[in-house]
Design a protein that fits this description.
With about 170 residues, this protein is mainly beta. It is built from 2 helices and 11 strands, in the order E-E-H-E-E-E-E-E-E-E-E-E-H. Strand 9 and strand 10 form a beta hairpin.
C-alpha cells in the first residue's frame, strides 16, 4: 500500500433490516451471482483499488427474509475486507430455526442454516441448510450445502425411499 492509499474501517450495526423480493429462487440466485461477478471484476488502475476496507457489519436485531422461496429471520456477523474495487466478505449469516423454505409448493421448516463467507478476497458464500417436512406418511429431510450459487442437494425420507423416489415425492406430493 502506498502512502496515498485510503483505509475505511470501523463497525456498522444495522438497527433493523431485511431482504424482501418477489423474485423466484432461481432469479434471486442469478441476480446475486451477477452482482458478485461484477464486484469481483478486474478494475486495474481504478482509484478504488487504493481504498482498503475493514468494516464489521452486525445487526442489533434479527433480519427478516421475505421472499416467494423463504420466510425466515437471520443473525449476521460479517466483515467487509479487500478493496473498494475488489471487496471480500468473511463471517456468517445464521438462519433461525423454524424459518420456512418453499419448494415446488411444499413448505419445509428450517432445522438449521448458515450462509458462510470465508474468502477475504472475494464474495463467495457457501450454504449449509437442513430443513424438513411431512409429505403424506413420509418425513422428508432436505440438506443443501456448498457454493451458494451451485449447491448440492440431498433429500432423504423416513420411512426410507430411494433418492429418485424422494425427489418424486417432493415434486408431486405423492
Amino acid at each position: 500500500r502506498g502512502e496515498d492509499d485510503i483505509r475505511v474501517f470501523g463497525s456498522v450495526t444495522l438497527l433493523e433490516g431485511g431482504y424482501r423480493t418477489q423474485q423466484s429462487l432461481a432469479a434471486a440466485l442469478r441476480s446475486a451471482a451477477a452482482s458478485t461477478a461484477s464486484a469481483a471484476a478486474p478494475t486495474s488502475g481504478s482509484p478504488l483499488e487504493s481504498v482498503a476496507l475493514d468494516i464489521r457489519v452486525t445487526a442489533a436485531e434479527e433480519l427478516v427474509v421475505d421472499a416467494p422461496f423463504a420466510q425466515a429471520s437471520a443473525e449476521l456477523d460479517l466483515r467487509i475486507t479487500g478493496t473498494a474495487a475488489r471487496p471480500g466478505v468473511v463471517g456468517d449469516v445464521d438462519i433461525a430455526e423454524g424459518g420456512r423454505v418453499f419448494l415446488s409448493g411444499v413448505t419445509y421448516s428450517v432445522n438449521r442454516g448458515r450462509v458462510a463467507f470465508n474468502d477475504p478476497n472475494r464474495i463467495a458464500p457457501t450454504i449449509d441448510l437442513e430443513a424438513g417436512t411431512r409429505i403424506g406418511r413420509y418425513q422428508v429431510e432436505l440438506a443443501i450445502s456448498g457454493d451458494a450459487f451451485s449447491p448440492s442437494v440431498e433429500a432423504t425420507s423416513d420411512p426410507a425411499l430411494g433418492e429418485a423416489d424422494v425427489l418424486s415425492l417432493m415434486a408431486t406430493g405423492r
